[in-house]
Automatic annotation (TrEMBL):
GO terms for molecular function: ATPase activator activity. Belongs to the vacuolar ATPase subunit S1 family. This is V-type proton ATPase subunit S1/VOA1 transmembrane domain-containing protein. It is found in: Membrane. It is a single-pass membrane protein. GO terms for biological process: regulation of cellular pH. Residues 1-18 form the signal peptide. Residues 362-400 form the V-type proton ATPase subunit S1/VOA1 transmembrane domain.
Length: 412
């Protein structure tokens, strides 16, 4: 019963996502602003609610500027640069930031502000000079930055971080109170249908990364499974140095064993310091879900089972995605995927493509556990009360009204 309930809720969630364009939004400020009164984290915010938020941030002494990225997703905030820090170091270093991971069409909220006597002006050095009234500046990064040599998403986001930093620093130098809101026009996982002019959910998969990068990818001959990582994993033996795997030029055939319905093995051969190594990913299907149980590591005719450090699996029809690192080990041998890692077995489409990844966040959060604990106490009290009431017994013997009454003589 619980499985069907989860399935129904999942379908409703997918339906709601397919008709909306939700993007992450973050706000920072300098000076004395109303940003501190906002909650530090709010999971979802609709267009009207976001418009009210912008209205609440503005006053005569505060300059509000909104910066829009053409495409923005939560993954953009989790990506790391070569120094190990976030690509948006401006927001990483801001202590009083406010983050809203899911805002529905923030650009539309700006359009609605015109009905509240606001003037949405394109940001430049003279936006607030000799201007009065309700003004919200808008900076479009895709219009401000024109560079045809961008070869990766990381490079673009780093440049945009520098651009946003310049805007924020300049405003804070010129004015006392400043609020900067950074958001996007569209979620990259949502694409527009030309036929219906409507938005629909685009399949999340990693195949669209920069083609110049050397990637780790295994596609079996029958198209039943996909194994993908942004870079090749590293191998460490007996606490030795991490040695990256290299593609084998002599044998590029992919091994596939699908003889059993509930078991799927897929792998191929790589090189480690010139030595041939075979990795076979072992998938097992359990009713409505699948799990990557282990990786068979074969070297010099010796096969060792490497187990994942954390459970890797999803419901049937969904993929598993992790931003990394993903570690497989067996004591002395450690195989590690440092960057993005995604797998999915038992694909049914003719053109192998990842399905949506299953949400990896824990369902039982502390508030939910606290609610269940309080509910359990209340149920115990109610159950104990009902039990006590049911244990109350009435008298089973009464005086006979037709019999002789009790007479008490009172002496004078």
């Amino acid at each position: 019963m619980s499985y069907y309930l989860i399935l129904i809720l999942g379908c409703l969630s997918a339906l709601s996502l397919s008709t909306t364009n939700e993007v992450p939004t973050i706000a920072i400020s300098c000076g004395n602003t109303k940003l501190d009164t906002l909650p530090k984290y709010q999971q979802y915010m609709g267009t009207l609610e976001f418009k009210k938020l912008l209205l609440s941030l503005w006053d005569e002494d505060t300059k509000v500027v909104m910066v829009l990225e053409n495409e923005l997703s939560l993954e953009d905030f989790t990506m790391k640069g070569t120094d190990g820090h976030s690509l948006f170091q401006l927001f990483e270093n801001s202590e009083g930031r406010r983050f809203f991971p899911s805002v529905d069409q923030p650009e539309k909220a700006l359009e609605m502000l015109s009905k509240n006597d606001f003037a949405v002006k394109v940001y430049n050095a003279d936006t607030y000079t000799n201007s009065s009234g309700k003004i919200i500046a808008l900076a479009d990064l895709n219009e401000n930055i024109h560079d045809s040599n961008d070869d990766s998403r990381q490079t673009t986001l780093l440049k945009h971080n520098n651009e946003v930093s310049k805007i924020f620093t300049t405003l804070c130098t010129q004015y006392t109170n400043v609020v900067l809101v950074f958001s996007g026009k569209m979620n990259p996982w949502i694409e527009k249908s030309e036929a219906s002019n409507a938005h629909h959910l685009m399949t999340r998969h990693l195949m669209a990364v920069d083609g110049k990068s050397e990637i780790f990818k295994i596609v079996d001959p029958k198209g039943k499974s996909l194994i993908y990582s942004v870079s090749y994993p590293t191998l460490s033996v007996d606490n030795g140095p991490d040695t990256p795997l290299e593609p084998s030029n002599t044998n590029t055939d992919v091994y596939l064993d699908d003889s059993r319905e509930s078991l799927l093995k897929v792998g191929t051969t790589f090189l480690v310091n010139g030595t041939k190594v075979t990795l076979r990913f072992r998938f097992e299907r359990i009713t409505f879900s699948w799990e990557l149980k282990s990786i068979e590591y074969e070297r010099d005719s010796t096969v060792i089972q490497l187990s994942p450090k954390q459970p890797i699996g999803a419901q049937k029809g969904l993929s598993y995605f992790s931003a990394g690192p993903v570690i497989f080990s067996n004591g002395s041998i450690v195989l590690k995927f440092d960057e993005k890692f995604q797998v999915q077995p038992w694909l049914t489409s003719e053109n192998p493509k990842f399905s949506d990844p299953q949400e990896q966040n824990s369902f039982f959060t502390p508030p939910i556990l606290a609610g269940l604990f309080v509910t359990a106490i209340m149920l115990f009290i109610v159950t104990w009360g009902i039990t006590m009431i049911m244990d109350i017994k009435t008298m089973d013997r009464f005086d006979d009204p037709k019999g002789k009454t009790i007479t008490i003589n009172v002496a004078e």
